[in-house]
Amino acid sequence: MRSTRTSNRRRPIRRPHVMGSLAILAITPLALTACGGGGAASGGDPDTLTILDYYNNEPDKTLVGDALDRCADEIGVTIKRETVPGKDLIQKVLQQSSSKTLPDVLMLDNPDVQEIAATGGLSPLSDYDVDTSGFAQGILDAASYEGEVYGLAPTVNTIGLFYNEDLLAAKGITPPTTWAELKTAAAALTEGDTYGLAFSSIATYEGSWQFLPFMWTNGGDETDLTSSAVAEALQLQVDLVESGSASKSVINWSQADVNDQFMAGKAAMMINGPWQIPALSADADLNYGSVQVPVNQAGQTPVAPLGGEVWTVPVTGDDAKQAKAAEFVECISSDENQLALAEARFTVPTKTALAEQYVANVPEMAAFTEQVANARSRTGELGEDWPEAATEIYTAIQLALTGQATPAEAFEQAAAG
């Protein structure tokens, strides 16, 4: 696997993109039943669309706003956009549903789509003949419920393995591609106050998110967390921590904390996402590369989770506005917007045919673009029940890494509550 060098090509310094909230809030079917009969917040004018999203911080607020403005011009509408913090979005949607003022276009973190589609609050894109061909299957799965696609994502993100080129070169180590190579490299790179590897095993959905590539690639599945394949993936983390190749503090580190450790030279490698690239590239003394997440056995296909946001059409009771909103959603995911947003925000286009052009424009995203091709939706197997599995995963990780249970026992205990 070829690494992606960044030491010779500096991009403009931007604040790192913060991945869409991994937390999924439970929403009862009753909560959105009011949405079917009300009018949208912008009234009855089909040439004015209201939009709600959680890109409330710069630079994403402006970057996404530019794409929205391009689509407004293209389809001939005026937009009224509202942004809220990610943690407040679902509550805002519930409030708007209750008052029958849902927006015409609603952006959702992709794990939330099935939850809200199940309430009847979203309109399937097939009602408007929106073309969903050419998109990576994983993102279509994330935006689907009971066989219908309810939204489109112009770009997505995932995670991979970053490494400090100078530290690996000094030890004559090539970027690891298997678990055995990862353990060997991490041990060799652990020296002084520098650990070989950093990752997030925090007791939140971030900890579960970072565990998924190891679990899925090894054949484990969220439908059976007590399988030997899942326990084997957790054993890898246990081995890394118990050997001293990874810090015991991984149980408290968020992904931002992991990046801080890497940038401070206290970790030679890390599991993280491309939203960290702007911060990494801003350090002129840091030479780094990235590869896909290592697999257990050579020849396995790395499978990682998809992060990113989906644009949807709420049911507002105004057929003309819903049709216009669907046209807008289709525009947001046009080839032009996918490439523009991906390049500006270090995310990956969701149309697979754009991958080659994108990597040519942004070579430091090569590993993540490869990773997205086989990435999976977190809700693809369990749908609305995913939050329960995610909680069991991070609970089991905590039990095993703190020595309270073996990996196999940890998942049994987590499942038992």
Which parts are unreliable, with pLDDT below 50 for 5 consecutive residues or more?
1-42
Reported for the largest beta sheet, the result is: 5 strands, mixed
Spell out the helices and strands N to C.
Answer: EHEHEHHEEEEEHHEHHHEHEEHHEHHHH
Q: Helix count?
A: 16
Cα end-to-end separation: 40 Å
Describe the global form: globular
Binned, the helix content reads 25-40%
Oligomer: single chain
Global structural class: alpha/beta
Radius of gyration, rounded? 21 Å
Question: How many extended strands?
Answer: 13
Give the strand line-up of the largest sheet. 2-1-3-12-6
Q: What is the residue-averaged pLDDT? A: 89
Beta-strand fraction estimate: 5-15%
How would you describe the overall organization of this protein?
The protein has 417 residues and is of the alpha/beta class. 39% of the residues lie in helices and 12% in strands. The protein has 16 helices and 13 strands. It has a five-stranded mixed beta sheet with strand order 2-1-3-12-6. Strands 9-10-8-11 form a four-stranded mixed beta sheet. The protein has a two-stranded antiparallel sheet with strand order 4-5. The protein is globular and about 65 Å long. Mean pLDDT is 89; it is low at 1-42.
Summarize the structure.
With 417 residues, the chain is an alpha/beta fold.
Structural topology:
Blueprint: E1 48-53, H1 60-75, E2 78-83, H2 89-98, E3 105-109, H3 113-117, H4 137-142, E4 144-145, E5 148-149, E6 151-152, E7 155-156, E8 160-164, H5 165-170, H6 179-189, E9 195-198, H7 205-217, H8 228-242, H9 255-263, E10 267-272, H10 277-281, E11 288-291, E12 309-312, H11 319-332, H12 335-345, E13 348-349, H13 355-361, H14 366-373, H15 386-401, H16 407-415
Parallel strand pairs: 1-2, 1-3, 9-10
Antiparallel strand pairs: 3-12, 4-5, 6-12, 7-13, 8-10, 8-11
